[in-house]
Amino acid sequence: MFIRTAALLLALVTLGTGPASAAEKLTVLLDWFVNPDHGPLIVAEKKGFFAAEGLEVELIAPADPNDPPKLVAAKKAEIAVSYQPQLHIQAAEGLPLVRFGTLVATPLNTLVALESGPIKSIADLKGRKVGFSVGGFEDALLGAMLKKHGLALSDVELINVNFSLSPSIISGQVDAVIGAFRNFELNQMDIVGKPGRAFFVEEEGVPPYDELIYIAHRENLGDPRLKKFLSAVERATQYLVNHPNDAWTAFIDGRKELDDELNKRAWRDTLPRFALRPAALDTGRYERFAAFMRESGLISKTPDVASYATELK
Q1: Based on the number of CB atoms within 10 Å of its own CB, is 226 exposed (0-12), middle (13-18) or buried (19 or more)?
Q2: Across the chain, what does the average pLDDT equal?
Q3: What is the pLDDT of residues 193-213, one digit of tens each?
Q4: 185 and 269 in contact (C-beta within 8 Å)?
Q5: Residue 168: CA atoms inside 13 Å, Cβ hemisphere, count?
Q6: pLDDT value, residue 7
Q7: How many Cα atoms occupy the beta-carbon half-sphere of 259 within 13 Å?
Q8: Judging by beta carbons within 10 Å of its beta carbon (0-12, 13-18, 19+), is residue 94 exposed, middle or buried?
Q9: How far apart are CA 136 and CA 297, in angstroms?
Q10: Residue whose C-alpha is closest to residue 22's, from 4, 9, 8, 39
Q11: Which of 143, 250, 284, 303 is the least crowded, having the fewest Cβ atoms under 10 Å away?
């Protein structure tokens, strides 16, 4: 799946309002299929903010969500949308990837149980079944949350439910799931009449982190297109905040499959989580999360933040 800005650029040139020189092409690999998490990117494309920066941006949804960072590391694409926790692991492994911008500036992960069920607090999970879809990081999140309430991973039974997070709770297969996104699974459950109770990771012992970031190859950080890209994304984010309904219309333009109740609710809930200053970097925040990753056994060392995260000047 991809979206091109070429048509818009062509229109601008035809009208005599665009730049005389050809637009600079830029490839951005998404982390997943197009969804409300990508709002600023789609709005920047639809509203001509990329074109105004002289960019022709191609957004590509991956066949395998694990591929985008690898392809950027191999210089097969300029930018990938990725995850901060994943970046810490890649940095510790020595991959030449650097965060240069933020898309979603808060965690989206939650621990979710049925609102009408017996789990009123995390302490109620003792002896219960907890579903997960991706081991490793989700185990670390759950372990930290349980620890805050005097429990350990050994006090619960972990069940791999693959990606059937909401169905596994609704069906009673598990008592809770870790890794549910607060802007999607909670809405999904509410729509089918089975509202969930969310425990937010950043309130339960896990340091705050950026859910989605922009990464590039270390050797490409001097590429002037990266700063232009962030300028367009920042402009799009401001537009989203100022004109949420019009931005939604732009988002679903040409993508009628996204125009449903779940995506409308996800759009509403994701909007306040977009980075208003996508280029800004909080080094101390990255240091604290790297320490959490090391203490959780997910990485064995914590490289200097400057080696894998930067703020373009």
Answers
A1: buried
A2: 92
A3: 999 999 999 999 999 999 999
A4: no
A5: 22
A6: 38
A7: 11
A8: exposed
A9: 9
A10: 9
A11: 284
* 118/126 Cα distance (integer angstroms): 11
Nearest-5° Cα angle at 107, 101 to 228? 15
Query: How many degrees, rounded to 5, is the angle at CA 98 between CA 36 and CA 312?
Result: 85
The β-bridge relationship of strands 79-82 and 24-29 is parallel
Report the DSSP beta bridge partners of residue 217.
Answer: 97
Tell me how crowded residue 289 is: count the other CB atoms within 10 A of its CB: 22
Instruction: At 92, list the tokens.
Output: 């510790």
**Across residues 100-116, what is the average pLDDT?**
97
Q: How many Cβ atoms from other residues are within 10 Å of residue 153's Cβ? A: 14
Strand partners, 160: 132
pTM: 0.89
Confidence band, pLDDT 50/70/90 cuts, at residue 310: very high
